[in-house]
Every structure is written in structure tokens, then in C-alpha cells.
Amino acid sequence: MTSISGRDPHTGRTIEVVIRGGIIAAITEVPSADPAWLSPGLIDLQINGYQGFDLNADNLTSDTVIDLSRSVLATGVTTFLPTIITASEEKIIACLRAIAAARQLNPALRHMIPGVHVEGPHLSSEDGPRGAHSREHIRPPSMAEFDRWQRASGGLVKLVTLSPHFEEAPSYIATLHTRGVLVSIGHTHASPDQIHAAVDAGATLSTHLGNGVADPLPRHPNLLWTQLAEDRLTAMFIADGHHLPSDTLKVMLRAKGLDRAILVSDVVALGGMSPGLYETQVGGLVELTPDGRLSLPGTRFLAGSIVPLKDAVARLATTDLSLSEVLRLATQNPARVLGRVGKLQVGAPGDLIRFTWEPSAGIQIESALVQGTRV
């Protein structure tokens, strides 16, 4: 049995949570003025790497996956989807095998990592929508290739980001949907009609909406309006202060509503590193500036984020959203799409974080539990 206490962000009252067998067994309000908050652990559907640990490295090993998991847990992320980007089929399969091996070696990772997000390689080849993905390895959707991914990983691919402009997209999406695999629209120049067709086929998410698109876009119609208006799509957003201006993010959240919005980090291996020029697997030569912007040198194109999810939550909680509302976008909502429970309630997984939060200091994680255990 494990117990942990802190303030419930929803009520502001101090509670004690008891965990038995990895599951929340009891929640009791206690008479205490605890300064720390207690929340379900953060859930990040898009992590490419962190603190030098790169999930898209040519020589990815299970040890790297295990070390990365410990690093992101220290930031309050108790569940995440390792994200593999556009590459050759051989490399994608090698990365999938390394992640699968890490889960076999470490029982906690089998809970922390419920699946893998493959972002690509079925994306737009156009500059702008393509972002930092390699044009060389962009290719149409192929069920034969997807089946090889699943055979190599033991069925670990749970989310695929693609551009629905491909002729094969609707049938591919429909097949993945029937197999319980999430499909997200991203890095695309697709027309509104092609986006509607993708949603009709079973796409349910938008990957980092507002990014991975042409620059500039026509006023209307365009693919952003279509995805914002489509109530069957839940939108993922990067709230690092660089991917979306504050006003843009505010309006997009209002359009989608808090029930259909998810915060992701899209953090890459350079997260937590010093400013400078780096040669990376995600984008090749990239520049990390002192203000935390990671981009392709000499362009406006971003190459991922270096901000962990907790910092995006802290930043957004200084706007007109409450801490409780913002946490919902990083716990309850992503849990729902994964078929989990991201709430403080009896019967939910004992994945909890205790933290302090001040607008000037951000979120500081004091402790993180995975199924009631400090990993």
C-alpha cells in the first residue's frame, strides 16, 4: 500500500490518496494546508526524446528508451507514446524493436509506454507542411508496411500521423481504425474535402494543429478551419510559446472546446540542452536559441520543441484557464483517447504527481508515482 497527499487542483482542498495493487483504493479529504498539489500523472502522446536521449537515433537501444523514460518521469510524465518520425522502413522497424525490448526488460515501462506514435512517413513532401521530416523518405500509406511494423513490435503502434492527401489514405485509415489504431491528421497540404474524407474513414485526431502547414495559408478555406470545425477531431497542441502565438492558441482552444483538446510536448532530444547549433536525426542541422526556440537555421520552420509538458501546462495556467482546466488537457483528455482514466478517482491507475506551482517559478515536480511506485 502507498499513500500520498496534496491539494486537489479541482477543489483546492487537501486530499490523501491510498493506492493498493497499483490502483487508487481510497481518496480522503484531510484537514491540512499542504502547499503542494496532487494530480494524475501527465500523459504525453508525442515525445521524440529528451536530455540527449534520442528515440530517432540510428543506433537506438533499449537502454536509451529506459533512460529516457526515467528522464521524462522526473518531469511528471507517467505515460507517454515514444514518437518515431519519417525514416526508412528499416530504421522505423529497428526503433520499434528497441522500444519493444525496453518494455520487456522493465515492467514499469509496459505501463508507462502503452504504445508508439509513428509520425510519418506518409506526410506531405512540400516545404512547410513537411516541417523537419526527411523528404527522401516520404511515401504513400501501405498496409503491407504497417503490418511489418506491427510484426516487428508485437502490435505496439497505437497512433499514426499522416497526411490525407494520398489516394490510399481513406482505405488505409479505415483499416487502421477497425484494428483499434488511432489516426491523426498532420504535416499536410490536404484539401478540406480530403480532410473530411479522412474523418469519415476514422481519423480522430489532429497532430500539433497549427503547425506542419504551408506558410502562408489562404485566408479561407484552408485545412486549419476544417479541422477546427470538425467536431469528430480532437486537436493536439504544442503550448511552448513558439509553435503557437498566445492569441492563436486561445482562439483554437475556444473553437475545439476543452473536451476536444490535448496538450503534447513534441519534445526532442535537445530538451534540457544548452543553446547552439546541433546535428540531429530530427531535421539535420538545427539551431537552439537562448529563448528556447528550435528551428532549421535561416528559416521560420520549427524542428520540434525543447519544453517538457509540465512547462507547457504551467505556461498555459497563467492565462485565463485555471490550473485544473489545463491539467485536464494533459491528463484526462489524452487518457481518454488511450482508453485509460486520467482522473483522481477510485479505480483509476495509481499514476500521480505531487508538485508545486507558482506563476513565476512554473511547476516543480516533488514526486511521481507509476502504479503507486516511485520508479
End-to-end C-alpha gap? 15 Å
By CATH, the topology is: TIM Barrel
CATH superfamily: Metal-dependent hydrolases
Q: State the low-pLDDT regions, or none.
A: none
Number of domains: 1
Helix content bin: 25-40%
- Report Rg: 20 Å
Give the helix tally: 11
Which structural class should the secondary elements be placed in? alpha/beta
Largest sheet composition: 8 strands, parallel
- Mean pLDDT, to the nearest integer, reads 95
Apparent shape: globular
Walk across the major sheet and give the strand order. 5-8-9-10-11-12-13-14
What is the name of the CATH class? Alpha Beta
Please report the total strand number as a whole number. Answer: 19
Please give the CATH architecture: Alpha-Beta Barrel
Strand content: 25-35%
Element-level helix/strand string: EEEEEEEHEHHEHEHEHEHEHEEEEHHHEE
Task: Tell me about this structure.
- By secondary structure, this protein is α/β, with parallel strands linked by helices.
- It has helices at residues 62-73, 89-105, 107-112, 143-153, 169-178, 192-201, 223-229, 246-256, 309-316, 323-330, 332-337, and strands at residues 2-7, 14-20, 23-29, 37-40, 42-47, 49-50, 53-54, 77-85, 116-119, 157-162, 182-185, 205-206, 234-238, 261-264, 276-280, 284-288, 294-295, 352-358, 362-369.
- It has a single domain, classed as Alpha-Beta Barrel (TIM Barrel), CATH 3.20.20.140.
- It has 11 helices and 19 strands.
- The protein has an 8-stranded parallel β-sheet. Strands 1-2-3 form a 3-stranded antiparallel β-sheet, with no helix packed on it. Strands 4-18-19 form a 3-stranded antiparallel β-sheet, covered by helices on one side.
- Strand 2 (14-20) and strand 3 (23-29) form a beta hairpin.
- Helix 1 (62-73) packs across helix 2, helix 2 runs parallel beside helix 4 and helix 9 (309-316) runs antiparallel to helix 10 (323-330).
- The mean pLDDT is 95.
